[in-house]
C-alpha cells in the first residue's frame, strides 16, 4: 500500500476501506483491463482494501452481459495466474474473492465516441462516487473527457468524480499541453489522476523511504560523494502485438518522460517538506525542471536486429507485425543528462532503456567516487572496486551495497564484496501487479502517486530537443544495446554495469 500520511512513523500494510465507489472502465475489453486492472482489484479485495460497496461498470464495443464479461476475464486470469512470466502470476486464485470484485458488474456495450453511452451512464451513476478509468488508446482521451464534461458527469454535486488517465500523456510538449487544456476545461486538477505504473510499484515507492526515512544515505547523496548515477530499464520482450502503436511512439516517448523520469525524480529529488501530494509532486517537478537540455551528442537511438533471447531465435524489429520494413523507430535509447542544481551540479546521470536486451532488469546504480588516494595500493581504475548502491527494482527487488573488504590472508588484498537486502527475504510476499496502490489511492483521494500537469510538462520539456526521427544504430537482440551506448560512457572513462 502507499505511504500513510495521517499517522506518524512508517506504516505499511492493510489500509482502511475507502468510501463506496463505482469504477467505469472505458476499454473494458482491452489488454490493460485484463492484465493489470482486474488483477489489482482482486489483490485489493484479498487485502480487504476494496470498498464494500463497489461496482464496476465496464464499457466497450462488443455485445455481451456483465456476467459474460466477468466470466471471460476470470478464465483469462486463471491462465495468467499459472504463468510465471505474467504480472499476475499467483499460486491460488480464489474464486470467491474474484466474485466479490465482479459480482454486480454492469457491462455497457457501446461506442464511447457517441453521446448515447454517456446518457446511459448518467442514469446508472446517479450521485455516486465515480472513477472513470481511460483504458483506451491515447487518441480517445480528450474526446471521452469532453463528452463526460458535456454530459454533466464530472460535476461533484454529491459524490466525487475522478478521471484516471493512462500514459502516453501527449506525444510531445505541445500535445501534452493541449490534452491538459481539454481536461482542465472539464475538471478541476484535484479530479485528474495521471497514472504511471512505475509510481505504483512497491520497490520504486521504497526509494523515497530508503532516502528519507534513514540518515544513512542522505548526507552522502550529493555531488561531493557521488561520481555518477545509472538508470536502466532493460527488457527481453520485443514489441509483441503492439507494433502499430510502437511505430509511432518509440522507446524514447514510451519509457523516458514517464517511467525513467519517475525513477530519476525519486532518486534525485530534494526531501519534500511533508507527504502531501502537493509537496511531493512539487519536488519532483523541480528536479525535472532542473534538467539541462540534452545535447545531440549525449543521446543514442538504437533498433534491435534479429538475435537470440533465452536460447530462442527472435526476429528483427522491422520484421515484427505492424512495423514498416524500413522503420527508423527506436527500440532502445541511452542518454547522459545533468541536473543543474546545487546537489547534483556536474554529476552525470546515464539513462538507458531497450527492448530485446540480454536480460530483464530495472535498476538504479548510484556509483560513488573513489577514496582520495590508494592507501592499500588497490587499483583505483578497476571498475569492480568502489562503492555502489544498487536499487534493484524489477524483477528482483531490494537494495545492495558494494564495498571493498580485506580478503583473509597475510597480505593486504582488497576484494569487492556486496551486502544485499531483498524484499522477499524480509517481508511476506504479497501479490502485486503495480496498480493496487494507485487504484487504492485514487479511491481514497490521494494524488501523491500520480503525475501533476507540471511534472508532465517538465518531463516533455526536458526531452523536447531530442524527440526527432533519424536513423537508429542497430543492436543484436539479446545484447546490451548498440556499441554507441557503451561509447557514451567510455568517452567519460566509465562503463555500464552489466544487464544480463
Ligand atoms: C509500458 C510500456 O508503459 O511499460 C511498455 O508501454 C513497457 O512498452 C512497459 O514494456 C514496462 O513496464 P514493466 O512494468 O513491464 O517494466
Based on the model shown, name its key terms.
disordered N terminus, 16 strands, alpha/beta, Rossmann fold, Dihydrodipicolinate Reductase, domain 2, binds 6-O-phosphono-beta-D-glucopyranose, globular, 21% strand, 6-stranded parallel sheet
Write up this protein.
It is a single chain. The protein has 500 residues and is an alpha/beta fold. It folds into 2 domains: 21-197, 3-Layer(aba) Sandwich (Rossmann fold); 201-429 and 451-490, Dihydrodipicolinate Reductase, domain 2 (2-Layer Sandwich). It has 15 helices and 16 strands. It has helices at 31-46, 66-82, 95-102, 115-125, 141-150, 173-186, 197-200, 202-212, 243-247, 250-268, 277-289, 423-426, 436-444, 453-463, 483-490; strands at residues 21-26, 54-60, 106-109, 130-134, 161-165, 192-194, 226-234, 299-309, 312-314, 332-338, 348-354, 361-368, 388-394, 398-407, 413-422, 473-477. The strands form 2 sheets. Strands 7, 8, 9, 10, 11, 12, 13, 14, 15 and 16 form a 10-stranded mixed sheet that branches. Strands 3-2-1-4-5-6 form a 6-stranded parallel sheet, with helices on both faces. Helix 6 (173-186) links the parallel strand 5 and strand 6. Helix 1 (31-46) crosses helix 3. The longest helix has 19 residues, at 250-268. It is globular, with a radius of gyration of 23 Å. 42% of the residues are buried. Bound molecules: 6-O-phosphono-beta-D-glucopyranose. Residues 167, 235, 254, 362, 394 line the site of 6-O-phosphono-beta-D-glucopyranose (BG6). The site of 6-O-phosphono-beta-D-glucopyranose has 5 residues, from loops.
Amino acid at each position: 500500500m502507499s505511504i500513510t500520511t495521517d499517522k506518524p512513523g512508517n506504516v505499511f500494510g492493510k489500509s482502511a476501506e475507502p468510501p463506496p465507489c463505482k469504477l467505469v472502465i472505458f476499454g473494458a475489453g482491452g489488454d490493460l483491463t485484463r492484465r493489470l486492472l482486474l488483477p489489482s482489484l482482486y489483490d485489493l479485495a484479498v487485502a480487504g482494501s476494496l470498498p464494500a460497496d463497489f461496482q464496476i461498470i465496464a464499457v466497450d464495443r462488443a455485445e455481451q452481459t456483465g456476467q459474460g464479461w466477468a466470466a471471460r476475464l476470470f478464465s483469462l486470469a486463471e491462465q495468467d495466474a499459472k504463468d510465471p512470466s505474467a504480472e499476475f502470476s499467483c499460486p491460488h486464485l480464489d474464486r470467491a474473492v474474484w466474485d466479490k470484485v465482479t459480482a454486480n458488474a454492469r457491462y455497457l456495450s457501446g461506442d464511447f465516441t457517441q453521446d448515447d453511452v454517456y446518457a446511459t451512464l448518467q442514469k446508472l451513476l446517479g450521485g455516486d462516487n465515480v472513477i472513470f478509468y481511460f483504458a483506451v488508446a491515447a487518441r480517445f482521451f480528450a474526446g471521452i473527457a469532453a463528452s463526460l464534461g458535456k454530459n454533466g458527469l464530472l460535476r461533484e454535486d454529491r459524490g466525487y468524480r475522478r478521471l484516471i488517465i493512462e500514459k502516453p500523456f501527449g506525444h510531445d510538449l505541445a500535445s501534452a499541453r493541449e490534452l491538459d487544456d481539454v481536461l482542465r476545461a472539464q475538471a478541476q486538477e484535484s479530479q485528474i489522476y495521471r497514472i504511471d505504473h512505475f509510481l505504483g510499484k512497491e520497490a520504486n515507492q521504497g526509494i523515497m523511504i530508503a532516502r528519507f526515512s534513514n540518515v544513512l544515505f542522505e548526507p552522502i547523496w550529493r555531488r561531493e560523494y557521488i561520481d555518477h548515477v545509472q538508470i536502466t530499464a532493460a527488457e527481453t520482450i520485443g514489441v509483441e502485438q503492439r507494433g502499430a502503436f510502437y511505430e509511432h511512439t518509440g522507446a524514447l516517448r514510451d519509457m523516458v518522460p514517464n517511467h525513467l523520469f519517475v525513477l530519476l525524480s525519486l532518486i534525485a529529488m530534494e526531501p519534500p517538506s511533508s507527504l502531501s501530494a502537493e509537496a511531493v509532486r512539487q519536488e519532483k517537478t523541480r528536479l525535472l525542471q532542473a534538467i539541462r537540455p540534452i545535447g545531440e551528442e549525449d543521446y543514442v537511438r538504437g533498433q534491435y536486429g534479429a538475435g537470440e533471447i533465452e536460447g530462442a531465435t527472435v526476429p528483427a524489429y522491422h520484421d515484427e507485425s505492424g512495423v514498416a520494413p524500413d522503420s527508423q523507430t527506436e527500440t532502445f535509447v541511452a542518454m547522459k543528462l545533468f541536473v543543474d542544481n546545487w546537489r547534483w551540479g556536474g554529476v552525470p546521470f546515464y539513462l538507458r532503456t531497450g527492448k530485446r536486451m540480454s536480460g530483464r532488469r530495472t535498476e538504479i546504480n548510484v556509483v560513488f567516487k573513489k577514496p582520495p588516494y590508494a592507501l592499500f595500493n588497490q587499483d583505483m581504475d578497476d571498475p569492480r572496486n568502489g562503492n555502489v548502491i544498487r536499487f534493484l527494482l524489477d524483477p528482483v527487488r531490494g537494495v545492495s551495497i558494494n564495498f571493498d573488504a580485506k580478503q583473509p590472508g597475510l597480505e593486504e588484498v582488497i576484494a569487492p564484496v556486496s551486502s544485499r537486502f531483498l524484499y522477499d527475504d524480509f517481508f511476506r510476499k504479497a501479490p502485486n501487479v503495480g496498480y493496487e496502490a494507485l487504484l487504492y489511492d485514487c479511491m481514497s483521494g490521494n494524488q501523491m502517486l500520480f503525475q501533476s500537469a507540471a511534472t508532465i510538462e517538465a518531463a516533455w520539456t526536458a526531452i523536447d530537443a531530442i524527440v526527432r526521427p533519424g536513423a537508429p544504430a542497430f543492436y543484436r537482440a539479446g545484447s546490451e544495446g548498440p556499441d554507441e551506448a557503451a561509447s557514451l560512457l567510455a568517452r567519460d572513462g566509465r562503463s555500464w554495469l552489466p544487464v544480463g
